Amino acid sequence: MTKSLTEKFELITRNTEEILLEEEVIPLIQNTDKVKHYIGFEISGKIHLGTGIMCMSKVKDFIEAGVDCSIFLADWHSWINDKLGGDRELIKKVAVEYFKEGLKASLKAVGGDPEKVKFVLGSELYHNADEYWATVIEISKNLSLKRVMRAITIMGRKEGESVDFAKLIYPPMQVADIFYQGINLAHAGLDQRKAHVIAREIGDKLKIKPLLDKNGNPIKPVVIHHHLLLGLQKPPIWPIPDEDLQSLWASMKMSKSIPNSAIFITDEPELIKEKLNKAFCPEREIYYNPILDWTKNIIFREKNSILEIKRPQKYGGDKIYENYLDLANDFEQGKLHPLDLKKAVAEKIIEILKPVREHFQNSKLREMQEKMEELIITR
Fold it and tell me: Which of 57, 230, 233, 377 could form an SS bridge with 293, CB 3.0 to 4.6 Å?
């Protein structure tokens, strides 16, 4: 069924951390022949909830809004950033044989249709693509070295960190990915903000591949940033001073490199329970709490979601929460114990990931997954 303009706007803008700019969303829908989305991923190991569920939940919203969605498997960027030991062929293999399948399964797990998403491999996009590399150069000519150095945080590097020269090519390439593919709706976590701001600032200066509306007028890409899930580990500073909360939050996001901080989409139920049981979840703390963060952004992202707490009558008995606010209020008042919350969230995550586990039960995919995990561990 065709969605109204208001319905499309609601789907595109809901459950987001930042939009650049919200007032440009409706003109984008009205004034372009096709809203073209993309989100890019480095190929760096196993897929966790932040990539598989958070990202794909937002992709599902875009699909339902009638957006032309694509997922960019950034094998060249992964090679530049030394992922999987900097083994270019391994990166490409993992991208196609594991990462693509994992994202398709994740999209299915959140109720999306994987057939409505196009997967683009960087190696294929860049092959025999003179115009792409010309776009990289044109973008680079509009950037200072200082600006590029500030942007390397999009790679998980620290600003001012000493890096090899190849890594300075990464930010202009990421911006070129947007313009070369004609993307007018760029999507990522908030950690990719610096690349997107560059795209918006220099887009109207480009002559090779500018973004145009259906009347031929130059436009800026609209940018959607989704929430970055917290990792399960305790922060290095506790309690956290109020002035440090925002910066520390960004550094404590879920990470593949810290396995116990993350739930991976193919984790077995017992492992999920074990990780959640050990997770940092201070009693009555609602401002920095990974379990509440997951509860809010994964479980209660849909309006009809529920979370069932099962506990003995002497501890309050079973209870069903239908919204995050009531749950957070009870937790802050000490009416909901961290252990009971952890158990309930673990069961819900297991339920959400069931389609992913089933997807990888296929003997060929299971063999591929095990082989990929073995290769990843050795790199």
Answer: 230
Annotated domain spans of the chain? 5-226, 242-263+268-352
DSSP 61-115: HHHHTT-BEEEEEEHHHHHHTTGGGG-HHHHHHHIIIIIHHHHHHHHHHTT--GG
- Locate tokens 């990539």: which residue? 51
Q: With beta carbons less than 8 A apart as the criterion, state whether 10 and 64 touch.
A: no
Q: Which amino acid is at 156?
A: G
Residue pair 302/248 in contact (Cβ under 8 Å)? The answer is: no
Q: How far is CA 349 from CA 49, 119, 289, in A?
A: 9, 26, 17
Smallest CA-to-CA distance from 230 within 282, 304, 157, 305 is with: 282
**DSSP of 292-331, one letter per residue?**
HHHIIIIITSSTT--EEE---GGGT--EEE-SHHHHHHHH
| Residue 260, both tokens | 């116990």
- Which one, of 139, 128, 168, lies nearest residue 151 by Cα? 168
Structure tokens at 168: 């300075």
Distance CA 151, CA 149 (A): 5
In angstroms, the CA 153 to CA 340 distance is 37
Assess whether the previous peptide bond of 232 is cis (omega < 30° from 0). Answer: no
- What the block records as the tokens of 138 is 């044109």
Asked whether 232 and 31 are in contact (CB, 8 A), the reply is no
CA distance 287 to 11: 27
Q: What's the whole-model pTM score?
A: 0.92
User: Which class is 242-263+268-352 in CATH?
Assistant: mainly alpha
Q: Indicate the pairing of strand 117-121 with strand 69-74.
A: parallel
Q: Does domain 5-226 have CATH number 3.40.50.620?
A: yes
pLDDT tens-digit series, residues 167-221: 999 999 999 999 999 999 999 999 999 999 999 999 889 999 999 999 999 999 9
Distance CA 288, CA 339 (A): 17
